[in-house]
């Protein structure tokens, strides 16, 4: 059995602030609040939690992944944007053109996300979080498909997308050119099967093309690895 995606971790200067923003925007429940971070539990079929971890370093570059939020009508799109702004978000410019119908925003710490226009066929059967859009190669899309056991739902012109068999958002990779891999503020937490063998899962991921980043993770509860594009992720200790 493969690992499952347990959480998307987001580094935050102020975890409670970001948790309040995203809980209000997504309608998710704040589950745990400790010195180690704050967890949001999905109220839909997203299938993984979001965890905000304290990190004093400031965000300085564009994130290599962001949420694409869906809308059902132009009024709904405007309402989602208005709700995000009321919660502390802001409009940002990442190079979009006046012809683009999606709206690009950032949360209170500058993490980018988009509110997609209604009628987007690619996200038509997805929930409010339509996609986690990632900067990355075709090879890394293949890697995550095998790592998570999620089928490819798009593979064309070096662009790939995968989706859990249980539904939820699509994970997409846009192909080249790619951003520098500086400042890992978002990362995946993988949980091996219950009572599984963490080392066996690490070995499997290495065979798929991952590398082990840390060599002294004793007592942390996880092992840090990197996918073929150099994006860090963590393999948790089985429980």
Task: Kindly describe this structure.
Helices cover 20% and strands 33% of the residues. It has 239 residues and is an alpha+beta fold. The protein has one domain (4-173): 2,3-Dihydroxybiphenyl 1,2-Dioxygenase, domain 1. The strands form two sheets. The chain has an eight-stranded mixed beta sheet, with helices on one face. Strands 6-7-8-5-9-12-11-10 form an eight-stranded mixed beta sheet, with helices on one face. Helix 1 runs antiparallel to helix 2. It is globular.
CATH class descriptor:
Alpha Beta
User: What is the number of strand segments?
Assistant: 16
Largest sheet report? 8 strands, mixed
Termini Cα gap: 15 Å
Strand content: 25-35%
Question: Helix count?
Answer: 4
Total domain count? 1
- Name the CATH homologous superfamily: 2,3-Dihydroxybiphenyl 1,2-Dioxygenase, domain 1
The helix content is: 10-25%
Query: Could you say what the CATH architecture is?
Result: Roll
| Shape annotation | globular
Low-confidence stretches: none
Which strands sit side by side, in order, in the main sheet?
2-3-4-1-13-16-15-14
Please name the CATH topology. Answer: 2,3-Dihydroxybiphenyl 1,2-Dioxygenase, domain 1
- Derived structural class: alpha+beta
pLDDT average, as an integer? 92
> Helix and strand succession?
EHEEEEHEEEEHEEEEHEEE
Give the radius of gyration: 17 Å
């Amino acid at each position: 059995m493969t690992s499952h995606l347990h959480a998307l971790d987001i580094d935050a200067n102020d975890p409670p602030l970001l948790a309040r923003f995203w809980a209000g925007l997504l309608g998710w429940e704040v589950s745990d609040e400790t010195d180690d971070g704050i967890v949001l539990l999905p109220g839909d079929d997203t299938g993984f939690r979001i965890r905000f971890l304290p990190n004093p370093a400031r965000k300085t570059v564009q994130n290599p992944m962001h949420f694409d939020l869906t809308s059902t009508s132009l009024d709904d799109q405007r309402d989602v944007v208005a709700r995000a702004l009321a919660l502390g978000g802001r409009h940002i410019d990442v190079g979009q053109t006046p012809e683009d119908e999606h709206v690009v925003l950032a949360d209170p710490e500058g993490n980018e996300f988009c509110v997609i226009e209604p009628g987007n066929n690619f996200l038509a059967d997805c929930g409010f979080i339509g996609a986690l859009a990632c900067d990355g190669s075709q090879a890394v899309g293949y890697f995550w498909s095998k790592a998570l056991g999620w089928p490819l739902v798009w593979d064309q012109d070096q662009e790939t997308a995968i989706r859990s068999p249980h539904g939820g958002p699509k994970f997409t990779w846009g192909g080249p050119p790619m951003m520098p891999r500086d400042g890992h503020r978002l990362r995946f937490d993988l949980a091996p099967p219950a009572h599984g063998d963490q080392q066996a899962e690490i070995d499997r991921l290495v065979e798929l093309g991952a590398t082990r980043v840390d060599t002294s993770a004793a007592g942390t509860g996880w092992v840090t690895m990197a996918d073929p594009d150099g994006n860090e992720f963590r393999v948790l200790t089985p429980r």
